[in-house]
């Protein structure tokens, strides 16, 4: 009976800690009406702003793995200001964010109606360049590429009804929608029943932007603050300037060689919403995501798996030990036991348990790198749980992981060197070099190859050359020296003392049953931890690949704990 409120409170704690907590760099921006005489001075002194800047980001799609920059499509692009993009941190660049200025000219409290963005775009099929541009645009519509816009450091969302009287707010909206030759509309076309012509591309060339704000009345702020930015994409074939009738959609035929021309337009409406707090302005996006129940299910799921596994291991241990102890007890005196000389059962293991493995170098190196990864993940999660890496702080998560990983080279070197020494290894130079370069080299190699492919495809996800150099510099100038320092201390220490001696002669390994052979063992050992984490994994991969916002670090932390327990327990089989 008391479980529900407890769960509710826990959910609130876990989900809410990132809300309402902002770092100094993410301070709120005040806006004021430039038409009012009283605000002139404030505007001049920079106390408030009148221009509401709209930034565009790269476009991506779940149906295609390659994101493209905004200017790759033939949209309206401010050619001069394009280079003046806001600075991006390392994490943003690596994750493929490409934030650029746009031509949408929005002034605070100035509503616009069907305003032309950059004049007419015309496509003549006899012109090779123009038909190429049009085809690329159509391909974007077909593959459901999504815009991601930013106003006042917030995603511009497209909210629509989903089943069960709920609204889902998507931090992006599609380029357009396609109705197939059979007449079945693809996802986004259902927003308007008029988008129904067969084999037609409906381009969303008009957006209605709604910006809600709190004018600071009754709050101790100096000006107005923006609370949300929502939009509705529309496809409109304009009859004449300044008119945006919704019943005339702009359908581009799938296969016809006619000349087409259209304009991009936009409307802006400012909505006063006093009583809403600036600090909780992200809530409406996060609340519309149907995550929380699934998260609890995932935690319960992994807890059950952990309990089940621990029970199994305990039972097996008990049974084995019980048999062995009974056999020892059967020998009447200690003398007899000593005479018997030969040990049996689980005690036999002690003579071999600390025997150095066949490939001490590889194991020591992997242990070192593994401890580096685990430490950086744990520290990042702690930061994230404390709210430092909230989604408002774009790119902070990735930057944090990378910087921590690079700085934690010392523990990696130390663990690797100490273990290698304990295993009796002597080639310490090779060990240090392997620890600094092998895993990182493989990861960087794969990354570089993928980047090469993206670069050839003209995708925006390809990182610029300067970022590549920065990454290499971080690796060679920070990570490698730190690893060497760690290794120096690791080798100076005495090797770890084992509590029991290792026998001179290795014991014969008994005939193995099917399931203790390496391959089945690896598969069975991996299935259970995977079962524990797949829901979290789903959300994380979604946030990496399809621009969803990931913010439930509390849940991630919990499920990380249960997952490591599962791994430990599975390993002890
Ligand atoms: C944007 O709008 C403001 C006022 O509405 C106007 O003064 C300014 O010239 C416009 N800027 C551009 C680039 O069109
Ligand atoms: C489209 O752009 C042209 C200029 O290129 C302009 O004359 C026309 O009025 C615009 N149409 C709309 C609906 O804004």
TrEMBL record:
The chain crosses the membrane at residues 296-318, 362-389, 395-417, 437-456, 468-491, 522-544, 550-571. One of its GO terms (cellular component) is membrane. The keyword Iron does not apply. It is a multi-pass membrane protein. It is found in: Membrane. Its main location: membrane. The keyword Transmembrane helix applies. Residues 1-20 form the signal peptide. This is Transmembrane 9 superfamily member. It comes from Branchiostoma floridae. The gene is LOC118427215.
